[in-house]
Amino acid sequence: MTFHKKYFSLIIVIISSGILFAQSSSTYTRYGIGDIHYSYSARTLGMGHSGSALISSDFVDVLNPASWSGLDRTRLEISFVFNGVNISNNSQSSFYSDAAFKGITFAFPVSQDYDIGMAMGLVPYSRIDYKAVERREAVGGFSSAHTVTYSGSGGLSKLFFGASYKLPFDVILGATFDYYFGNLKYNSAIVFDDASFYPVSYETLYGPTGYGSTIGLISPDLSGLFNSETITGLRLSASANLINTLNTDTSLTTTSSSLIDTIGIGVTDLKVPYKITIGTAVTLSSQYSFLLDYIYQPWSKFELNEFNQSNLDDVQKVSLGFEYRALKEPGISFWEQIIWRAGLSYEQTQYKFNGKNINQYSAFAGFSLPLSNENTIDFGFEYSSRGTKEANLLKENFMRLNLGISFGDIWFLRYEK
Q1: Between residues 348 and 373, which one has the greater pLDDT?
Q2: Which helix (H) or strand (E) covers residue 154, if one does?
């Protein structure tokens, strides 16, 4: 089987396998559009979701479309993730886990003279996945003891197409055209202990669709300003993710023992706030890359049906990343070709309850194993702690294992005869 046929066979297997979902988060994701995905790849996860100023020839990064200027091969990347979370309060603790297909990207160089690289892909933007159970006793003689279950699922996905281009003074510009779509499903169910009372459930479903764009800039290599043999790379970056108001279909359905009734159908607006990312990347001795990214997204401006949500606040995230890769030289061994990564991050998440911000602290690690000269299998690991047990809130400890496969081949490039 040729290498090109392997590409398409793998895509068919992924599409036919479907996506697995189970609870892997908390009731915090009930607000807004759930937890935000900052990246999809094992490589970026291993560096703490940093790297917006990094130009690489052998990976497809979605943090900043200007980074595609370094492509020298056609690349296909696929990512899967295992999620595990331990959720606890002052009285109990539970562990949940799941596995899912994370995303797919395809990119290729168009012109190395003008740093034109093009990319497209399907990646997640957010995810809702929670379940909470509340036990209520009978009040007086007029009702039965019952259990109320609140659950939610779904999220927002992004289909994108974009390119990079070299401007005057070697500034790299990148831009994408994005299409957003998804389903946000919220369910409440009541089950009575007394069988003479019928159980009932209420489901609210939102189906947002719409368009957006990501625009990014990466500076020229500024390492020459230091006149140092050690500093072999220094770049700055900035990018903005903008999403138009999403047209959102809505429905409210009630279910009882004998009737399923859709009692409300309509269309409303969903406004996702813009996201700003600023970053820098410093490379030492052409082997050691140190990364710093800052993300700001004002979720206090989120609107659904022209209403804000009081439990949402502005996101601020700082990420530190590191990557080591040996110089590619003839005769280099398998072990010397392994790429090593690590990262740390602090995030003031979009969630706020009782005047208390829900903060998240994370540590990351990862590595890439060579499958051949241009192909790797990538691993990324995250451990995060979020929230607090104070004020009847939840403490969450996340574990994520990201598995990615990155293929590279020579397509589309023209060579002088």
Answers
A1: 348
A2: strand 146-166
DSSP state of 190: E
144-203 confidence digits (pLDDT tens): 787 888 889 999 999 999 999 999 999 999 999 999 999 999 998 888 877 777 788 888
Contact predicate 37/31, CB 8 Å = no
Domain assignment present for residue 366? The answer is yes
Its domain, for residue 18, covers 3-409
Instruction: Give the DSSP letter of residue 207.
Output: E
- Strands 303-304 and 260-271 turn out to be antiparallel
For residues 240 and 399, give the distance between their C-alpha atoms in angstroms, rounded to a whole number: 29
In 327-375, DSSP assigns E strands to 339-353, 356-370
Q: What is the pTM of this model?
A: 0.88
Burial of residue 154, with CB atoms counted within 10 A of its CB: 0-12 exposed, 13-18 middle, 19 or more buried: buried
Mean pLDDT of the region 60-67: 94
Chain segment 302-313, per-residue pLDDT in tens: 999 888 888 999
Question: Which tokens in the block code for residue 37?
Answer: 């995905």
What are 6-54's pLDDT values in tens digits? 444 444 343 333 333 334 556 788 889 999 999 899 999 999 999 999 9
Cβ-contact 343, 322 below 8 angstroms = yes
Mean pLDDT of the chain: 87
| Alpha carbon 343 to chain centroid, angstroms | 16
Sign of CA pseudo-dihedral 117, 162, 215, 322: negative
Structural domain contains residue 149: yes
What does the alpha-carbon distance between residue 290 and residue 342 come to, in Å, rounded to a whole number? 10
pLDDT(257) > 70: no
Which tokens in the block code for residue 300? 């206090």
Asked if residue 81 lies in contact with residue 19, where contact means CB atoms within 8 angstroms, the answer is: no
* Residue 415 in domain: no
Q: Which residue has the tokens 């009692």?
A: 263
Q: Answer whether residue 414 is part of any domain.
A: no
| C-beta atoms surrounding 315 within 10 Å | 20
Domain count, the chain: 1
Q: Name the phi and psi angles at 63, rounded to 5.
A: -65, -40
* Residue 105, C-beta contacts closer than 8 angstroms, at least 6 positions apart: 40, 41, 60, 62, 75, 76, 77, 119, 120, 121, 123
**Tokens 């947002």 sit on residue:** 208
CA–CA distance, 164 with 217 (Å, rounded to integer):
9
